[in-house]
Write a structure and sequence with these properties.
With about 325 residues, the protein is an alpha+beta fold. The chain has seven helices and twelve strands.
């Protein structure tokens, strides 16, 4: 190609395609007309006058056919262009929605008094239904939530936003996580619809180090301590699923360098394809020596490389990790 020659743009390529199709249509009409005329001449043996009349009819039919094909092609190209514009607009809207959703995630500090923190979230699509939030109270205690809204895409993202607002509205007084879960579940029922959410709510106190948690139908978290691994699963049904739901919280005394991990089912189901349980994954990652941020990244990477649950083609789900460690000086 000459240095001064510019490559054809999309419009130029479209014109070439149209010209090529028109030529093919004209050739097809010519061949068809010739074949029809030859067959008529073979069987009808027309007089010269009749032959002229037949030729005029065939030419007219060919012109009509070519005109129809050309108009149909123009209409098809117009519909395709409209669909392309709509798709571009939708992609841009989803890109902006994803950016807004990510920007609304709270900034989890690397540490607060007595604890180290890390959180990661990757939606399966542009926007998702997983979320986390993190509130530090005046007394230094922390109330955190990790949730997973039923469904995917834009409906789940809208419900996720509503749940985060509910959490902020009822979490200000630092009350027991079970009461927070009950109030959020009741408010979600009042919103109507069939959406619900699994969630784990946890309150962290630093003097003495203590965890109070409740699980609303969520995959169990894990607490890694010197004397073993404990599942964190006490609670009740998913938020908003059943009317009048009640929750029972549970407490765990913490020691310096204890490590805890909460995940959504996008992580646990991905690990099934490895296959590993969450506990196996933590053991293989040598969690007691790893910085909590590196641990969260390693779990996300392990889940991202998994093909998903066995026997489920095209599986995809939002993936979220919330991890904490009790500071050594605690």
């Amino acid at each position: 190609m000459d240095e001064g020659a510019a490559p054809l743009n999309g419009r130029g390529q479209g014109r070439l395609v149209t010209l090529g199709l028109s030529l093919l249509a004209g050739l097809a009409a010519l061949l068809l007309g010739s074949a029809v005329e030859s067959r008529i001449m073979r069987y009808a043996r027309p007089e010269p006058g009749e032959l002229e009349w037949i030729s005029d009819v065939i030419v007219a039919a060919a012109v009509v056919s070519m005109t129809y094909l050309w108009l149909h092609l123009r209409a098809s190209r117009s519909r395709v262009a409209t669909l392309e514009r709509q798709q571009i607009a939708l992609d841009e809207e989803l890109r902006l929605a994803a950016h807004i959703q990510q920007s609304l995630l709270p900034v989890v500090p690397p540490s607060t008094r007595g604890f180290e923190w890390s959180a990661r979230m990757v939606p399966a699509r542009r926007v998702g239904g997983d979320f986390y939030d993190f509130v530090v109270h005046d007394d230094g205690s922390v109330l955190a939530i990790l949730g997973d809204v039923s469904g995917k895409g834009i409906p789940a993202a809208l419900m996720q936003s509503a749940l985060k607002t509910l959490f902020r509205a009822v979490a200000g007084d630092g009350s027991d996580p079970a009461r927070v879960a009950e109030r959020m579940g009741a408010a979600l029922r009042e919103l109507g619809g069939e959406s619900y959410a699994t969630a784990v709510l946890a309150r962290f106190e630093h003097t003495p180090p203590r965890l109070t948690f409740v699980s609303a139908g969520h995959p169990p978290g894990l607490l890694v301590q010197r004397d073993g691994v404990r599942q964190l699963s006490a609670g009740g049904p998913p938020l908003g699923l059943l009317p009048g739901s009640r929750y029972e919280s549970e407490q765990a005394a913490l020691q310096p360098e204890d490590l805890g991990v909460f995940v959504t089912d996008g992580i646990t189901e991905a690990l099934e394809g490895v296959p590993l349980t969450l506990e196996d994954a933590l053991h293989g990652l040598s969690v007691r020596a790893a910085p909590v941020a590196r641990l969260a990244d390693a779990l996300m990477d392990l889940a991202a490389r998994s093909p998903g649950p066995p026997g489920v083609e095209g599986w995809q789900d939002d993936r979220t990790v919330f991890a904490f460690r009790v500071a050594a000086q605690a």
